[in-house]
Amino acid sequence: MARLSRVLDTIKINLRHVSTFYYQEASRVSVWWFWNTPFHIFQILLSLLLFKYYAMAFGGSSPLYGVDFMTFIISGLMINTYMDSSLTVYYESISALYLGKMGIGGLHLSRRDYLRLAGISPYTFMLARISWRYLMETLMFILYFVTGTLLFGFQASTKADLALVLGIILLGIVACSGLGLISASMYWIAGSYRGVEPITWLVRIITPLAAGIYVPRDILPEALKIAGDLLPQTYTVSAVREVLLGGATLPRITHYLVVLIIQTLILVPVGILLLKFSLSLERKRATIY
Hints:
- This protein is mostly helical.
- The chain has one domain.
- The chain has helices at about 1-55, 70-100, 110-120, 120-150, 160-190, 200-210, 220-230, 230-245, 250-285, and strands at about 100-105, 105-110.
- It contains nine helices and two strands; from the N terminus they run H-H-E-E-H-H-H-H-H-H-H.
- It has a two-stranded antiparallel sheet.
- It is globular and about 65 Å long.
C-alpha cells in the first residue's frame, strides 16, 4: 500500500511539472500561433494551389490517383503532419534539453542541468514538449482539412469509420516515433548536435516520393517501392486513405496494420535503448558547445 502511495505521489508531481511546462509553452506559443496562423493558412492555400495548377498544366487528373488528384494530395499532407513530427520532435526535445538555457541570478545553466538540480526527470520535460507538439500538429491537420474542404472539394467518404482512422494514425505515430527515437539518439552517439541529423534527413527526403504522399506508388520504380516498403508512413497513409476516402473496413486494411505493429515492435524498443545509451554518454563526453 505504501509503495502504491509513493507511485501515485510521483505521478502527481510529474503531472504538475508537465502542466508547468505546458504553461511555459502556451505562454510562448500563444502569441506566436496567433501571429503565424494567417501565414500558415496562406502557405497551405498557395501550396495546394500549386498542386492544383500543376495537375491542370498536365491535363488534369489521372485514374492512378483514385478519387481525384487534390483529394489524394490533401489527404497525404494531412496525415504526414503527424508522421513528420514523429520523426523530428524527439530530437528537437533533446536539443531543447541541452541547448536551452535557464537563468538563476547572474548564472546561466543548460536546461538539463537546471532540471537535474531541481530534481526533475528530463523525460518529464520531453513528455511535455512532445505531447504539446502533437497538439499543435492537430491544429495544422485541421487547417489542411478545413482549407481542403472549403476551397478544393476535399470530401471524406460517408462510410468512413473515423474511429478506425484515428486508430491508424495513432499506430502510425507510434511506429514513426521509433525512427524519431533513433534519430534523437544520434545527438550524443554521432554528435549530430554539430549540424544535420542524418537519419531524419534521409527519411524526410525519401518519404514524400517513396511513401506515396505526392504520387501513387504504382508508378514508382522498384527501388523506390522497396525504400517505401521500409517506412511506416507508407502503410499509415495508404490505410487512412482507403478508410477515409474509400470507406474501407478493418478486414480490408489489416495487412497494413500488421506491418505497422511489426515495425513498432522493432523500432520503438531499439529507439528507446539507443536513446538511453545516448543520454548515458552525455557526462562521459563532457562536450562543451
